[in-house]
Amino acid sequence: MATAPLLASSTVLDLAQPLPLDGGQQLDGVRIAYETYGTLAADRSNAILICHALTGDQHVASPHPITGKPGWWVRMVGPGKPIDTDRFFVICANVLGSCMGSTGPASLAPDGKPWGMRFPVITVRDMVRAHVALLDALGIDCLHAVVGGSMGGMQALSLAANFPERAAAVLVLASTARHSAQNIAFHEVGRQAIMADPKWKDGDYYGSAGQGGKGPEKGLAVARMAAHITYLSEEGMHDKFGRNLQDRSEKTFGFDADFQVESYLRYQGLSFIERFDANSYLYITRAMDYFDLAEEHGGRLADAFANSTARFCLVSFDTDWLYPTPESRSIAHALNAAGCPVSFMELSAPFGHDSFLLEVPALDGVIKGFLGA
């Protein structure tokens, strides 16, 4: 029996004040697109902020308006689910710099033209500043919890470090306190694929959209394909695809998608360009690469949490080679050094980095237990 879609409230907030950025600039006219689920308690004590990953958006548990697909975490958010909307008021905002309603490179600048590459450089902390402005507008002084996986985990950590009074609990899934050289390298491959596409036009491709152009679609698709490889595990790819060939009546050799894994990656790339903006991809991946929570606080990670009174839960996955378990363990050690209460666990799952999004029953129990404590 099919489950009815969870009723969500979709809203766009226009910030009345300029948003200060780490780069020293202020961004005027910032818009924050967000969705809420459930009911806010009278004392505003039951709010949970979910922070999305690089290619996510605010449609955490409602159908995507472009693709029609279910929300990216619909298995986790809803009545009676681990993030129970019968109990909690759930908020998910599209990050600053993205392309699903929040201000980003595709938005109009003060001169009436799309920002493009004139958009100011942003950081993860800038994204969190926008989240805090949203919480202020909603009258929420302290969250019951902030929750995030991957880049969403970076935002959760940044909020805990820079706005320690705004969350009573912090749940971080498959994330890191800074990018490794390998992480940065994979992102750079994707960025170069976009910028090498002739249709990128130095980021000034929006004007051609009305004339049938859609920007650097091929470059963006390749960037998505390269990134998607890092989200999977070798075991998972082998079990799902192996060296299986496409089912064809005649065997042909060449540069078509002969192998099933090739076809899968091309599908991921082509479906991605329907819903994402290439310039947003450039800006957000750069923000992730700049993220270094220890460097922001004098070079010692424990000092980032010196003023925190929140309790923390960190979860890693044994097949995640993008943000492997030692990354989470180092954060746990820093939290211990800062005297913060922290639980840390590595879960077993075959899905690689994407495990926090997929069917891992043990994760359901961890999230439900931590949020209900």
Describe this structure in words.
- This is Homoserine O-acetyltransferase.
- It is an enzyme of class 2 (transferase).
- It is found in: Cytoplasm.
- Pathway: Amino-acid biosynthesis; L-methionine biosynthesis via de novo pathway; O-acetyl-L-homoserine from L-homoserine: step 1/1.
- It catalyses: L-homoserine + acetyl-CoA = O-acetyl-L-homoserine + CoA.
- With 373 residues, the chain is an alpha/beta fold.
- It folds into two domains: 9-179 and 293-372, Alpha/Beta hydrolase fold, catalytic domain (Rossmann fold, 3-Layer(aba) Sandwich), CATH 3.40.50; 183-284, Orthogonal Bundle (Rna Polymerase Sigma Factor, Chain: A), CATH 1.10.1740.
- It contains eleven helices and twelve strands.
- It has helices spanning 124-138, 151-162, 181-196, 217-231, 234-240, 260-272, 278-290, 293-296, 301-304, 325-337, 361-372, and strands at 9-14, 19-20, 26-27, 31-37, 47-51, 77-78, 83-84, 89-93, 145-149, 169-173, 311-317, 342-347.
- The strands form three sheets. The chain has an eight-stranded mixed sheet with strand order 1-4-8-5-9-10-11-12, sandwiched between helices. A two-stranded antiparallel ribbon has the order 2-3.
- Helix 2 links the parallel strand 9 (145-149) and strand 10 (169-173).
- Helix 1 crosses helix 2 (151-162), helix 3 packs antiparallel against helix 4 (217-231) and helix 3 packs antiparallel against helix 7 (278-290).
- It is globular and about 55 Å long.
- Residues 208-212 and 249-254 have low confidence and may be disordered.
